[in-house]
Amino acid sequence: MNVIKPLIFENDKLLILDQRKLPFEEVYIEVKSSEHMAKLIKDMALRGAPLIAISACYSILIDVLNNKEREELLKSIEILKHSRPTAINLFNALSEVEKIILNSKNLKEELYNFVIKLDQEEKERCLRISENGLKIFKKESVVLTYCNTGFLATTGIGTALGVIYKAFEKGLIKEVIIPETRPYLQGSRLTLYELEKLKIPYKLITDNSIAFLMSKGYIDLVIVGADRVLSDGTLINKIGTLNIAILSKYFNIPFYTAFPISTYDNNSKIEDVIIEERGKEEVIKINNNLITLENAKVLNYAFDITPANLITGYITDEGVNYGGRKEVI
Ligand code: MRU
């Protein structure tokens, strides 16, 4: 499989593929510090729950290699935690880094080992998700996925897209339907870029075409990713996921979410979760061109909340789960 690398760590240098320039240009940025990384995450140069978590940890490693003091490192962790508030992976990974900073005898070595292991584990989790996901296919299918959950959102094969890639290898994918995913266009820019590279048949649609296609019986299956999954099965994911889940229920189409177990949040209640609100620029402009009045008043939530009763199943690296977390098949 043609691997796309959103992050490269080589010779103690950290490079990030600037996803804002895709699908037109493949430009890497060298990350100089964790503050630099926090800004890149905020500005969406990289995104996707597992990728921002791993990248944030690598950026702390860069700070350590540049001999930053422990106190400064702890401040950097706070800055990184504030870069994007919704996906849980970032908080879980940084809490582990924090423990290492507070307790380690040989910080450089321990952090190095931790980050490389985390990266490796997430890659392996992606592979297991993709293999487990094969169980949900009954026939060669037209699958709708949303946002971007592939190579560009993880350091591995991806989550929901990883399942699609594995299923394609097995002859189980007829076509992938990609809603464009306004406003940042993760579908039309990033998922399309991946499917073009991998030569997987797809159709790009506007976000508001989903109901019509479902009503015509065009879509067999929906698989989306996750930014956080609570212990009661509530799914927090890209804004628009809830619309798709409601439509899937209405049209009786199986709706799955795929994610690594590092995306589970067993401690929070929904009231504790901050749903990120982003600036108005993303909505009133496309490619820096105004598409409406500059003084438009805008609501731009980046994520929404899908209740468990709309979700057919949860595909994780542990298996496929059709109910409570323990019921793994
Ligand atoms: O705003 P983004 O692009 O970071 O949102 C990404 C998603 O919503 C993905 O579905 C999620 O992070 C899972 S990526 C494997």
Q: Give the CATH architecture of the largest domain.
A: 3-Layer(aba) Sandwich
Average pLDDT over all residues: 95
Q: What is the name of the CATH superfamily of the largest domain?
A: Translation initiation factor eif-2b, domain 2
* Main sheet overview: 7 strands, mixed
Instruction: Summarize the helix and strand pattern as letters.
Output: EEEHHHHHEHEHEHEEEHEEHEEEEE
Describe, in plain words, how this protein is organized in 3D.
45% of the residues are buried. Strand 1 (7-10) and strand 2 (13-17) form a beta hairpin. The chain has helices spanning 34-42, 49-65, 70-81, 88-103, 107-133, 160-169, 186-198, 210-215, 241-250, 281-284; strands spanning 7-10, 13-17, 28-30, 141-144, 173-179, 202-205, 221-224, 228-230, 235-238, 255-258, 264-265, 285-286, 289-290, 303-306, 313-316, 319-321. It is globular, with a radius of gyration of 19 Å. It has 2 domains: 7-127, translation initiation factor eif-2b, domain 1 (Four Helix Bundle (Hemerythrin (Met), subunit A), Up-down Bundle); 135-321, Rossmann fold (3-Layer(aba) Sandwich). The chain is built from 10 helices and 16 strands. With 329 residues, it is an alpha/beta fold. Helix 2 runs parallel beside helix 4 (88-103), helix 2 (49-65) packs antiparallel against helix 5 and helix 5 (107-133) packs across helix 6. Helices cover 38% and strands 18% of the residues. The chain binds 5-S-methyl-1-O-phosphono-5-thio-D-ribulose (MRU). 5-S-methyl-1-O-phosphono-5-thio-D-ribulose (MRU) binds at residues 47-50, 87, 147, 149, 153-154, 159, 186, 225-227, 237-238, 302.
